[in-house]
Amino acid sequence: MRYTLLGRSGLRVSELALGSMTFGDDWGWGAPPETSTKMLELYADAGGNFLDTANAYTGGASESIIGQALRGRRDRFVLGTKYTLQTSPGNLNTAGNHRKNLVGSLEASLRRLHTDYIDVLWVHARDTLTPLPELMRALDDQVRAGKVLHVGVSDWSAWEIAQANVLAELRGWSPFVGVQLRYNLLARSVESELMPMAQAHDLAVVAWGPLAEGRLTGKYLNGAEGRLTRGGWDFSGERGNHIVREVVAVAEAGGWTPAQVAFAWLRSRSGTVIPLLGATSEQQLAANLAAADVTLDDDALHRLDEISAPELGFPHDVMAGEDMTGLVYGDQWRDVVDHRHASRRAVNDNVRLE
Predict the structure, then answer these.
(1) Rounded distance, CA 253 to CA 300, Å?
(2) What is the spatial distance between Cα 63 and Cα 55, in angstroms, rounded to a whole number?
(3) Which sequence positions are flagged as catalytic?
(4) What CATH number is given to the structural domain containing 209?
(5) Are residues 278 and 297 in the same domain?
(6) Gap between the Cα atoms of 67 and 132, Å rounded
(7) pLDDT digits (tens, 9 = 90+) for 233-278
(8) How confident is the model at residue 67 (pLDDT cuts 50, 70, 90)?
(9) I need a labelling partner for 295 at 20 to 30 A (CA). Which of 68, 96, 178, 345 fits?
(10) What is the pTM of this model?
């Protein structure tokens, strides 16, 4: 396992994070506590140290399982949890990003996790009823109190994250150091606004749903039945099949699994992109962890990039033409290489300036 920095912080985190939405079977699916604990041990043995959970996962059971498993060695891990989602139906103030829910949720999470601080507290979703100044100041108060070390954000629009971080910086509050996004080869719309924003603000990207509900494992190409839709998105179209077939082809050529290729592609993206591993068995997690040893060559990356390229929309489509590029950057624009925005692999020609 290799490590990277969590955004603009000095926090060292493993290049693969362990998600725990599957920890506990209280929702009728997922892994029982014993299996969940074994998966955490497997991840730790591989060198992983970045754990992700939420107060709403399996009704709090996920946090409890992790808290029990980390007793006596909690400081060895970078532990993140989330708050926002309602935890007590019928009580309006147990939902949202306001100060009351923040304080109550955090205290409950600390108890379940058997710890007195959270390394990264993630705001789980955008609550438009809570003013940004209230949220950012309330988060900073918890940092100053020592109950939270860093703050992050999940599932917000790019302009709101940028607004929140600028507000925090201007007022001397703690800014977001990371963002959690749904990002995979079948869902690249985040490359339009969210990924450029993350790079501009030096935010680490934790990519959830890296296998597109299992579609990128290739199993649905053979007629396996499963749930291909969730939260309003659908990965079952023919374009998706073409992308998955290419993932399978790259995997077969390299001697890997399609899932390992999907994780490796995410790790190749520019900036800091940390895939979030989720599993329901030790065998499944072990196979996914092996993605840390997979490096895709330029040809494989080009094939995957090309077949899955998203339509970024306006203004990207208007500004992408060579005529407009020449007008904006000058007729010698091809001689200019912007190393600040180059991808991790070498970029020698056809550098796209944005």
Answers:
(1) 10
(2) 7
(3) 57
(4) 3.20.20.100
(5) yes
(6) 31
(7) 556 678 899 999 999 999 999 999 999 999 999 999 999 999 999 9
(8) very high
(9) 178
(10) 0.90
